[in-house]
Automatic annotation (TrEMBL):
Pfam family, one: PP-binding
Annotated ranges, domain Carrier: 11-92
Organism per entry: Hydrogenophaga bisanensis
PROSITE patterns in the cross-refs: CARRIER
First and last residue of the signal peptide: none
Highest taxon above the source species: Bacteria
The name this protein goes by in its record: Phosphopantetheine-binding protein
Length: 94
């Protein structure tokens, strides 16, 4: 099995991650309406720190690795749907 078959690329993960966010937060938006590079926090989707904690929890459960609240890279990891998907993909290949 090649790495491409074992681990989806960030582009392949984005629809799945968008659906996870919408479902976890009961958002009034469809997953396909979340733009890959729009901010998740504040403007963009308008999420707050509690929402980010909820996303971290569902991502941890779904993908089997911890997103810690004290991670100095959280601002970058949660910057956008694309950034979060890239981080998930990088964790799954390690």
């Amino acid at each position: 099995m090649t790495q491409a078959q074992a681990f989806p690329s960030p582009e392949q993960l984005m629809p799945e991650v968008a659906a996870l966010i919408v479902e976890a937060l009961n958002l009034e938006v469809q997953p396909h309406e979340i733009q890959p590079d729009d901010p998740l926090y504040g403007e963009g989707l308008g999420l707050d720190s509690i929402d980010m904690l909820e996303i971290a929890l569902v991502v941890s459960k779904r993908y089997g690795f911890q997103l810690k609240s004290d991670n100095e890279n959280n601002h970058r990891i949660f910057a956008s749907l694309r950034a979060l998907s890239e981080h998930i993909a990088s964790q799954r290949t390690q």
